[in-house]
Amino acid sequence: MLPITGYADRYSVAPGESIAFKVSSAAAEDYEARLVCVISGDPNPAGPGIREEPVEAAFAGPYPSRVQPIHNGSWARVAAAAPLDTLKSFTVTATIWPALPRLSRRQGLVSRVDAVTGAGFTLEIDETGALAATLSDGARTVVLDTGRALRARAWYRVFLSYDAGAGEVRVGQLPLAPAMLVDDSGTAAAPASFGGSCTGSGDLVFAARAGSPPRDHYNGKLEAPRIVAAALDLDAAFRAAGIDRGENVFAAWDFSREMSSVRILDTGPHAMHGETVNLPARAMKGWRWTGEEMCWRHAPEQYGAIHFHDDDLYDCGWGTDFVFEVPEDFRSGVYAVRLSASGDEDMIPFFVRAAPGRAQSSACVLIPVFTYTVYANFARGNVDDAYRRQVADWGARPWTPDEHPEYGISTYNRHSDGSGVAYSSRLRPILNQRSGFCAYADPLGGSCLRHFPADTHLLAWLDALGHDFDVITDEDLDADGVDAIADYKVVMTGSHPEYHTPGSLDALAAYTEQGGRLMYLGGNGFYWRVAVNPELPGAVEIRRGETGIRAWAAEPGEYYNAFDGGYGGLWRNSGRAPQRLVGVGFVAQGDFHGTAYRRLPASRDPRAAWIFEGIGDDELLGDFGLSGGGAAGFELDWLDPSLGSPAHALVLARSERQDDTFMLVPEEMLNHYVNRPGLPTEDLIRSEIVFFETPNGGAVFSVGSITFCGSLPHNEFDNNISRMLDNVLQRFRRD
Q: Cys bridge to 494: 344, 455, 535, 652, which one at CB 3.0-4.6 A?
């Protein structure tokens, strides 16, 4: 683990509210905490550098160091499960789909064990990939297995049966779709004459072996676990593992119910309901999925499986070290708690919004925390010697998600079993959301920043030119709707507002329709649909369905979000392409390189000529910059009327030709010969600066490039990109 790190219980806080900080420090002495206002987070010596202003705060000072643990891996529990104490003979059954049956450890499926005596049972998969069971009364233990390896990603019915009268324990596995020339069905039996109970005590655990905390997490799907108050024969046990309740059912959990929650419901007579831990994937195809229905809301009985992973993490669950009570007169902005101990340091960024109805400025920066969360702890696999040299030379942040998977992985990575990561959370240290974090090493000396540190280029520009501003997060938009930004004349995005919920997108659309002025200062924005759930604060869900630039692809039939039941994937597939909101949308991506824009005739139209005051007709716009060396680069957006770009929108400037690393996004390609618009591919690989008016005096200005804001600091903020943006902001702030 890192020598010192932490996280907060929330991203956004208003004056009069409080935010709690949780810290883990391995130092032998106290650590120090202090408050700073973040102005610039770029460590590149060619730029403004790391700039922060100290802010007085009552919490500032020393705190005792303590190491707070992390428990990765998802599972489910039924607290106490006291009715099981009465059982003598019993049978445990389930339907499973193991994703990694062969590991160097056992994987628990259903388990209840006394923490003191060790009495109890565990139905599990052993190190060879075979179904196994461990049964004990605290004095004697029996372990047995079928000796038949389970196939990966295949459905089985499995059971553990204990006959107290006959003194026998049995286990068995039955493939539901047998494979040719594979013998993976089998049972095993062993004598088990116990003097005491072997039903254990305490919590009943699914998808892990019982313990404090549970261990040996299962990788795969689990469906319809059942407990029967009798020792069943082979045929009866396999029948009981199915959806039908069967006879003598003591407990029967139906995971197809309340799939949007963490609850698991027992339909049996004792109502032993439970909950999931660490966000395993729900609304997953079960063994009864036919392929005829793609939405779990329409056929929930076909989606009764939960996919568990040994690297899931929702909430670290750390104790609170200190709380910041935000004063009533506190200034809106981007802040961070700086932590230091024994020469090591970390920061925890957070965002202070204005109190509702009390805007402190006419302009507001929209912080894309949904995007930050989706990318949280993205292990890019690029930590090589060149990266380390750049980090050392710049004094940049040395810790990366590649080297610290214990803090949970990103939805841009895959789980250890190869499945895509559908959930992310901010309730954990986020290593790449820190000032000074470099996403890549650039041999040409560029900053190669993404997300939070990249967005500080805009913050530094606003500070340098003396523009006051508030901040708000898209999480606030989702919760409060357009009211969260209705008092602002202008709202600015950062470099990459990619992920949005229906609520946050609705708020922005309503804002522009009501006369708000929106400045979209990035690229590949408003692209993916994500879901949130009020029962799971800080968590975001993404289903990467069918098309788009994807780190992984959702399985067919698993495109609908569990959190809200909405159709996941690209917003354009739900009829809400980015072009409808901001005039431009994602069209091409390449390496982290940038070029300049060249003005077009529309830039001299009287409707928009004011944008270029002080800029020559023939000037290249942004042939410089800390991000990729140019204002138009990496991920590019263009105007497309067929996807909703307004007919009256003006294309003011277009990027120069990109290098050969750039290619169209998949949704624009019909086949290897033809793209969707039917134009030459080289004509589509471009970024366009667009302006158009909206009702009630509103307007939209879009730049269509991720690297745009990286050009603002050039020449100490005195350049034509800076001048153009200043012209727009000044005009947008007027009545």
A: 455
490-545 confidence digits (pLDDT tens): 999 999 999 999 999 999 999 999 999 999 999 999 999 999 999 999 999 999 98
Using one digit for the tens of pLDDT, what is the confidence trace for 340-368? 999 999 999 999 999 999 999 999 999 99
Task: Give the contacts of 204 (CB within 8 A, at least 6 positions apart).
Answer: 77, 78, 81, 84, 110, 111, 112, 210, 272, 274
- For residue range 641-651, list pLDDT tens digits in order: 999 999 999 99
Check: CB of residue 626 under 8 Å from CB of residue 721: no
E runs forming strands in 229-287 = 249-254, 263-266, 274-277, 281-284
CB of 76 closer than 8 Å to CB of 279: no
Token pair belonging to 303: 């989606």
* Sign of the dihedral through C-alpha 584, 585, 586, 587: negative
pLDDT of residue 248: 78
For the cut 50, the answer to whether the pLDDT of residue 243 exceeds it is no
Contact by Cβ (8 Å): 12, 353: yes
Let me know: does 490 contact 733? Beta carbons within 8 Å. Answer: yes
Specify the DSSP element, H or E, that contains 337.
strand 333-341
Cis peptide before 646 (omega within 30 of 0): no
Q: Are 441 and 335 in contact (CB under 8 A)?
A: no
Count CA atoms closer than 13 A to 509's CA, side-chain side.
15
Among the listed residues 653, 652, 658, 536, the one whose alpha carbon sits nearest the alpha carbon of residue 587 = 658
Q: Note the pTM of the prediction, 2 decimals.
A: 0.97
**Mean pLDDT along residues 574-599:** 97
Residue with tokens 């917003």: 571
